[in-house]
Design brief:
The structure is a homodimer.
Chain A lengths: L2 H26 L4 H12 L11 H20 L3 H6 L1 H25 L4 H10 L5 H10 L6 H28 L6 H29 L11 H19 L4 H12 L8 H22 L8 H23 L7 H10 L5 H12 L5 H28 L9 H13 L1
């Protein structure tokens, strides 16, 4: 019998169970379960206890797990709801890119870093990683709240802006300067993709829907939904966006038909199985040994700047919606993720960034990722009567209907 | 953005969609969808059209897909139902091992093959691969019928016997003879595992059940079920059985609580997503170029012997249940799978088996795999009033309740 299956199964079992055990412990401490899953990865992963070193196959499951986290979030976001907050989301995303970049750049220059290094670290502070926020919002059943919609919308814009910034930065770094034409095409593709998904995608689904009756396959709506999810995730990655943004669009496109097709409980189940591998590997990637003395201090300051800049940059544009909403949006946009790590890695490979600056970016990513969920949870729980939130009872009822079927 | 995610997503999308398109075409031709999924792999795979060459990551998804096919089948099989057919299943498995081995051995000797080669080819004809049969039975909603239970029970015994045979054959082949003590331990482990799962496993779940109320995690029953599935699959592989048999046991252990915990629609959804990768890769592994002239004739005869020997060997012991049941059991036990391929591969690596004998085994595996689903379907559809089948209406109602929730 093949021993390959053997190790893969043991790995998946160990990761799944440890992630869930840590999740349960965190739930009992009134902390978000997702944070427990990440911590399980940090503690048991290859940089600390070395109990579990995820293999390439596990990372593949993790990638698809991230897809389903955003697909699930998308399914609970109707396009018209997203459009209603479109202007706020755009403002949040824009300011949320500018403020962190400026703060990061000036701190790194002040500290004596070279201009190109400062540019890379600043660029790494820009892109929000929405997977963790989406999971926390889903766990708290507030994905339908107004501030949650602003966050999800801003995440879409943010991803487009982050992509452009990455192209600009690596263009500068490669010495070839900025290739404006290429940049323009990339930008147009991303905007076109987003507009198509929001305005035309749902109409296509509406047109296709009656045809499903003629399909002989069992579970035709589920099969179609999974195919759309994989297709849009791939398409988003293909044009240079994050694959998970494509998965979010797939959910968005199908959101209106999710109750009719009973998608939520089924997609939730797939998510329940695959997502722990994603969150565990986030933790497993974090090397706690990179930090010492000066680097740690810089890392800490940059992390605080990363938090403050997003809270200010993303919170201010929606201050008129009330302080609770502004704060939640700011904190929700706080986590940095794979884009930050890629920017830093590109810089490292091009010798534009030192090992210590690289470590700083990794620390900042971990710090913002780990701080966001408990803060978000406290804000939402404590101020659940605040402006901009759907009444808890209503949300619970709606969620229960989708989840429990 | 990482291009790794990009290719993985494209691969998963292409395989998923092509498998489903072929499945739909086959459904429309009143052939089993699973056969279409396999054919998609043969045609588009690396040995024919070369459109899709599955990577290691896809094979990992395929392995877990096979796990969920058997987990789903197990969830619809209550332990007490399996026990009721235990004696018949054991007889079916025993005769289903002896008859193919004898027929295969004598044909290969007759044809002029060496004794050790004949032993390997004969051994490859023994082990039933139940994943395909389980899927066909599930598609036709007859997993609860008596003949289906006999098949699933026999598959468990068959796997234990096949494992012993593999140990014997590779012991002989390695020149060290048979290590009786090791063999005895392996046998005892497998039997102990099976008995534990059937008699004690469900009791443990019954004991644990009230404790679930105290767990704070969302979807605690689903999480527990997934953990049990991964654990038992790994444990089965660990003691030398097929991992999928462990997954079947996991389903069996949980079958009594599946309705209460609403497991079916959720596990079905995961299965719906992952299983196509398994069936597609079965097809993709099949190299159609290995066959020419003499080899093709031998391959064809061995394939026919493989069919006849299982139909006779597995059918005769249950003839008193009526001819329809006997025929269904025989055909249901017909597909050979990964164990046959492993036996042949071990023989090839030890220079005990020629390239042509290896090709013959591959052909036989493909032939039995491809012939079983349409035959099974015709038998079940045409004779659905026959002895040993639950009334179709009843089965449909039961299935609809589990599936549609």
């Amino acid at each position: 019998m093949p021993s390959g299956a053997d190790t893969l199964l043991l790995e998946l079992f160990a990761i799944f169970v440890w992630a869930k055990i840590f999740g349960e412990l965190f739930e009992r401490l009134s902390l978000p379960a997702v944070l427990g899953e990440i911590l399980a990865g940090i503690i048991l992963g290859p940089h600390a206890a070395r109990l579990i070193a995820p293999t390439a196959n596990v990372y593949a499951f993790a990638e698809i797990g991230a897809i389903f986290v955003l697909f699930t979030a998308g399914l609970e976001t109707r396009p018209q709801d997203l459009l209603r907050v479109g202007r706020q989301s755009l403002r949040v995303a824009l300011a949320g890119v500018v403020v962190p970049f400026v703060l990061g750049f000036f701190y790194m220059r002040l500290r004596g870093g070279a201009t190109h290094e400062a540019v890379f670290v600043a660029a790494a502070m820009v892109a929000t990683s929405v997977a963790i926020t989406a999971r926390v919002l889903a766990d708290l059943h507030v994905l339908n709240a107004r501030f949650a919609r602003i966050i999800m919308g801003a995440a879409v814009f943010d991803d487009i802006l982050g992509m452009i910034l990455l192209a600009v930065v690596s263009g500068i770094a490669s010495g070839g300067g900025i290739r404006w034409l290429h940049l323009g095409v990339t930008f147009a593709e991303a905007v076109g993709f987003a507009l198509f998904m929001i305005f035309i995608g749902p109409r296509i689904v509406r047109r296709v829907r009656p045809g499903l009756r003629h399909i002989s396959l069992q579970n035709a709506p589920l099969v179609l939904s999974l195919a759309i999810c994989l297709l849009l995730s791939w398409a988003a990655a293909r044009i240079g966006m994050a694959a998970i943004i494509g998965a979010f669009f797939a959910g968005l496109v199908l959101a209106d038909y999710a109750p009719e097709w009973r998608l939520q409980p089924r997609i939730h189940a797939i998510n329940e199985f695959l997502a722990p591998f994603f969150f565990f590997t986030i933790g497993a990637r974090l090397d706690v040994h990179l930090f010492s003395g000066d680097v740690l201090l810089d890392a800490f300051i940059i992390s605080l700047l990363a938090v403050v800049s997003k809270v200010v940059g993303c919170g201010l544009p929606v201050l008129r919606e009330g302080r609770p909403t502004a704060l939640r949006v700011g904190i929700g946009m706080m986590p940095r993720g794979e884009v930050a790590l890629i920017v830093a890695l590109v810089g490292l490979q091009m010798n534009m960034v030192s090992q210590s600056a690289y470590a700083i970016v990794i620390f900042m990513t971990g710090f913002t990722t780990i701080m966001a969920p408990p803060l978000l949870r406290v804000l939402i729980r404590d101020q659940s009567g605040g402006k901009g939130t759907a009444a808890p009872a209503l949300v619970a009822a709606r969620e229960g209907g989708g989840d429990g079927a």
